[in-house]
Structures are given as structure tokens and as C-alpha cells.
Specification:
about 375 residues, alpha+beta, 3 domains, 5-stranded antiparallel β-sheet, 3-stranded antiparallel β-sheet, globular
Length: about 375
């Protein structure tokens, strides 16, 4: 929270571009906090991440599958975010990989990129994992690419049941090994083994939400998806419609809005701050790092032999680019046409007016 409050303010320092002859100066540009939860600082990280991942996009169609944690487990996830989110990642990926390797379904290894989201459009706590899945896989011999028809990956009910079983089995192991905390919140009663068993058994009896969205059209669409989705955190500045002392109004979906008190807005936002060093984008199967220079490249060669090189790179510009200032270091001054623009760096908390006044004396 401190990082976001200080982002692009004088507290973090910055720079100002000034003509060394007439003193003409730009507005000060203050440094960014670069916190991964800051809505203002993700555009550059997003662009760099996409460029780094370019080599791992295969020239094939992709599916989008979403695995959602049941509402009954949200309180437990708040107290044990690292443990529960890790189980969510691992069991969702294992569900897809196991179904892919099943000889009765595909008999091949898929490539998966999984992204953790913990929010709804109105900022409520709603943990789920988005998986971008290759439309086919590499067979065990590594000699053949097996394609999935573009309109269908696996039955949703089958994915739901398998995901439910894997997650609850892993959760039960974590409970028995003492890896879960319960605190004094609404999940404190689960410290009683009988209460935990009742919750577990009730979750076995209900359907879990797994949603398979329409497939992507190819590598270009994957880039477009990743570019606007992977580095989003809870809310963007563009969704903020009105900010007052007593209320904050922001856009949700379908043209609707939500109005919250500032304290409630901040509380909802901070629910989505991840544990320190927790990795929220993970890769499995062919996309795992251990396969990046081996099986993934074999799959690429097979696909290119079948369809040609459809691995087009799309230049995804940041959503919130830096302003294109008229003053650039080393450029001629646009005002006096005589001087040269020089960049002066501001220390954290340094007064810009005092700096410019001092520089005016020097240049005079």
C-alpha cells in the first residue's frame, strides 16, 4: 500500500529536463514504484514479459479453461493464501495434463500457461486460475503432434470431477500434515477434525465450476490475450469513474458500476495482494522450463512442418505508455533554439521549485 501511495510522487524522486541556456523546463517526471500490485506500473512489465515468452508460443490453436475455488474454501484461502493458491495451480494443471495423457482421450502432453486471479469485477475475493492450453500435444515418443479439434478440448463435467478429487485429496493431505492455519476468522472451527471432515465431504458431493471458453484462433490471439490479461491486478485506473471523500465509484461489467466507501474499497483491493515472492504465472507440460529447449522445440518443428510457420509476433503496446514529452535530453531547446536540453535528477522529496530557481540563477 505504501508503494502505491508513493508511486509517481516526489517521495520517490524523478527528473526534470531543462534548457541550459534559457531555463525552459519540462514538468517533473517522478519515478514509479514498480510494485507488481500497482495498477499504474504493470504496462512495461507486461510488454517485457510478452517479449520473453514469444519463443514459447506454438503455431496452433489454443483453449482457455478456468478452474474456480468453491466459495466454502475462500476463508481458508485468506488465511493460507500460499498453500491454497499453490494447490489450486497444481491440481488444475494436473487435471489437464492427466486428461491429455489419457490414451482414451488424446494420449499426448499438452502445453499450459496458468494465471492466478483472485478477484471479481467488483473486487470481491474469488480465487480462480485461467489456463491457456495448446490445442493438441506431443505424443510420448516425441515423433508426432496430435491435434485437438478446435471446438472441443475435454468434457467440462469430467474436468470438474477430476479437479475436485485432486484438490480435496491434496487439501486433506495438507490438513493431516499440519500445513494449514485457521486463525480466529470464520474458518477457525475447521481446526476440529470432525468439522473439517464434514466440509470436505460436502465439497465432494457438489459440482465444482470449471469453464471452458471458446478456443483462440492461433498464436496472434494468444499474444493479444496475454497482453491484456496476465499483468492485470484487481482494477485498472481506467475503471475509476469518481473519487470523493465519502465514496469511490468504478465500472464493473455490462455498463454497471459499484460505489464503495474509501475504506471498503481499499480493503477489497488489498485482499488481492499476493504473498511475497509468490509466482502468479506458471507453466506446465510442454511449456514448463525443463521442456523449453527440448520437447517444446520438437513440437514446434512438427507443427511448422504440418502448417508452416504461423508463429507471428504481435507488438502489444503498453496500456498506459509514458507521455511523449516535447523535451528530450541532448535535443535543441524548442523555445530559445539556442540551448540544449539537460536532464537533472531529483532526489526523493527534493523541492522542484527550489531546484529550478537555483538553476535559473546559474544559467543567468
Amino acid at each position: 500500500m505504501r508503494d502505491i501511495e508513493r508511486c509517481r510522487t516526489a517521495e520517490l524522486g524523478g527528473h526534470v529536463d531543462v534548457c541550459d541556456h534559457c531555463g525552459h523546463a519540462s514538468d517533473p517526471s517522478y519515478n514509479s514504484c514498480r510494485n507488481r500490485h500497482c495498477p499504474k506500473c504493470q504496462s512495461l512489465a507486461q510488454k517485457l514479459w510478452i517479449e520473453e515468452r514469444a519463443a514459447r508460443i506454438l503455431p496452433t490453436h489454443y483453449f482457455h479453461v478456468v478452474f474456480t475455488l468453491p466459495a466454502e474454501l475462500r476463508a481458508l484461502a485468506r488465511v493460507n493464501p500460499k498453500t491454497i493458491f499453490t494447490l489450486l495451480f497444481e491440481t488444475a494443471a494436473r487435471t489437464l495434463l492427466d486428461l491429455g495423457r489419457d490414451e482414451q482421450r488424446l494420449g499426448a502432453e499438452l502445453g499450459i500457461t496458468a494465471v492466478l486471479h483472485t478477484w471479481t469485477r467488483d473486487l470481491r475475493f474469488h480465487p480462480h486460475v485461467h489456463c491457456v492450453v495448446t490445442g493438441g500435444g506431443l505424443d510420448p515418443s516425441g515423433e508426432r503432434w496430435i491435434t485437438v479439434k478446435p471446438g472441443f478440448l475435454f468434457p467440462v463435467k469430467v474436468m470438474s470431477a477430476l479437479f475436485r478429487g485432486k484438490f480435496l485429496a491434496a487439501l486433506d493431505r495438507a490438513y493431516r500434515h499440519g500445513e494449514l492455519r485457521f486463525g480466529t476468522t470464520s474458518c477457525a472451527a475447521l481446526a476440529d477434525p470432525r468439522r473439517f471432515a464434514r466440509l470436505r465431504d460436502s465439497l465432494y458431493r457438489r459440482d465444482w465450476v470449471v469453464y471452458s471458453k471458446r478456443p483462440f484462433g492461433g498464436a496472434q490471439h494468444v499474444y493479444e490475450y496475454l497482453g491484456r490479461y496476465t499483468h492485470r491486478v484487481a482494477i485498472s485506473n481506467q475503471r475509476l469513474l469518481a473519487i470523493g471523500d465519502d465514496a469511490i465509484r468504478f465500472a464493473t461489467k455490462n455498463g454497471m458500476t459499484e460505489t464503495l466507501t474509501p475504506a471498503l474499497f481499499i480493503r477489497r483491493f488489498l485482499q488481492h495482494v499476493l504473498p511475497a515472492r509468490f509466482v502468479k504465472i506458471r507453466h506446465y507440460g510442454l511449456k514448463a522450463s525443463r521442456n523449453a529447449t527440448s520437447r517444446l522445440e520438437v513440437a514446434r518443428r512438427l507443427l511448422e512442418a504440418q502448417h508452416g510457420d504461423a508463429h507471428a509476433i504481435v507488438d502489444t503496446a503498453p496500456d498506459d505508455p509514458e507521455p511523449d514529452d516535447e523535451l528530450r535530453p541532448g535535443a535543441p531547446c524548442p523555445r530559445c533554439k539556442t540551448g540544449t536540453i539537460v536532464r537533472h535528477y531529483l532526489r526523493p522529496g527534493e523541492d522542484v521549485a527550489a531546484l529550478l530557481a537555483a538553476m535559473a540563477i546559474d544559467t543567468s
